[in-house]
């Protein structure tokens, strides 16, 4: 991730070394290179335009600093703007003041929701919480079983529509809204302080799926709705994120598959276009491949 973007930006800044002062032409040439590097990394066009505009404005207006040479000054500006575009401060889960904290997951099929459910549950358990997973994805034949496997690996119970045998679960029927509500009720009764509700995804955004997710949201009133997005989906990221934001008004973003060789554009675009923070990064298939997302650390990694 970000290797190519990182190399391109580093090379661009190298060109400025040794310059005592930056002319407008230097700034323009640098901003042009930054813009190209971001576009090649699949960052959405409007995001690149705004980002480049801000860098140019700040670089031209920058005070001459005794402590920083012009190249360092531009790196500092780009760093600060990258942190901003990635959501600013690290945003943590908002815990409910009373009753269980309800976390709903939404996203396309294959985005990594079910895997994330296990990762998040394991992570919260390690922090002293007592999570329960709720299988409200009744669309995909194996989704319930898969969540049960993930729950087993995380050491966390799973509330499923049919507490029967595996073969019963292969064709789950029923109403996902009712399952989600019952799952939350189960959490209350069994005194779990965190409920993570997995919902159905489709291969593409469709009205029926979105309506179902919206109805689940209305029924369980979650403290957080996390939109899980595959970092590899490139330019499609923006439209998918906007559709989900309109559909379920998510509260935070989880970038999955950050370990892949994606060019990084999705990561930089989704937070910017929706105004919602990236909260977690998912970096592999193991349940421990998961971390809180720190915009400042990610920006430093890009500019390394
Ligand atoms: P869902 O359809 O949204 O529930 O997605 P899944 O959790 O089933 O994930 C789809 C596929 O992506 C599975 O094969 C997962 O093992 C894999 N996967 C999920 N998260 C990650 C990740 O962070 N990195 C990698 N490399 N693979 C992941």
TrEMBL record:
Primary subcellular site in the record, as a coarse category: cytoplasm
Keyword annotations from UniProtKB, A to Z: Cytoplasm, GTP-binding, Hydrolase, Nucleotide-binding, Ribonucleoprotein, RNA-binding, Signal recognition particle
GO function terms (MF aspect): 7S RNA binding; GTP binding; GTPase activity
Cellular compartment(s): Cytoplasm
Catalytic activities: GTP + H2O = GDP + phosphate + H(+)
GO cellular component: signal recognition particle
Binding site for GTP: 107-114, 198-202, 256-259
Subunit structure: Part of the signal recognition particle protein translocation system, which is composed of SRP and FtsY.
UniProt protein name: Signal recognition particle protein
GN (gene name): ffh
Residues of the full protein shown: 1 to 304 of 523
């Amino acid at each position: 991730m970000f290797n190519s973007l990182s190399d391109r930006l580093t090379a661009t800044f190298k060109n400025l070394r040794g310059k005592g002062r930056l002319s407008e032409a230097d700034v323009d040439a640098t901003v042009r290179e930054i813009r190209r590097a971001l576009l090649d990394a699949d960052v959405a066009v409007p995001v690149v335009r705004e980002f480049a505009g801000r860098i140019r404005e700040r670089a031209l207006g920058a005070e001459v600093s005794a402590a920083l040479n012009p190249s360092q000054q531009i790196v500092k500006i780009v760093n600060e703007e990258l942190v901003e575009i990635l959501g600013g401060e690290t945003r943590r889960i908002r815990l409910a003041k009373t009753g269980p904290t309800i976390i709903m997951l939404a996203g396309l099929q294959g985005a990594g929701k079910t895997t994330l459910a296990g990762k998040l549950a394991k992570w919260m358990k390690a922090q002293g919480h007592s999570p329960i997973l709720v299988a409200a994805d009744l669309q995909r034949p194996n989704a319930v079983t898969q969540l049960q496997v993930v729950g087993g690996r995380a050491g966390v119970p799973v509330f499923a529509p049919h507490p029967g045998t595996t073969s019963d679960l292969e064709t789950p029927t029923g109403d996902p809204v009712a399952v989600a509500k019952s799952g939350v009720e189960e959490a209350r009764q069994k005194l779990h302080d965190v409920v993570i509700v997995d919902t159905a995804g489709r291969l593409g955004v469709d009205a029926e799926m979105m309506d179902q997710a919206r109805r689940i949201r209305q029924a369980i009133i979650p403290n957080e709705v996390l939109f899980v997005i595959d970092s590899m989906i490139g330019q499609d990221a923006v439209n998918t994120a906007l559709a989900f934001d309109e559909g379920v008004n998510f509260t935070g973003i989880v970038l999955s598959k950050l370990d892949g060789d994606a060019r990084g554009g999705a990561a930089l675009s989704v937070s910017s276009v929706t105004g919602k923070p990236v909260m977690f990064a998912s970096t592999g298939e193991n349940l421990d491949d998961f971390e809180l997302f720190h915009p400042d650390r990610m920006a430093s990694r890009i500019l390394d």
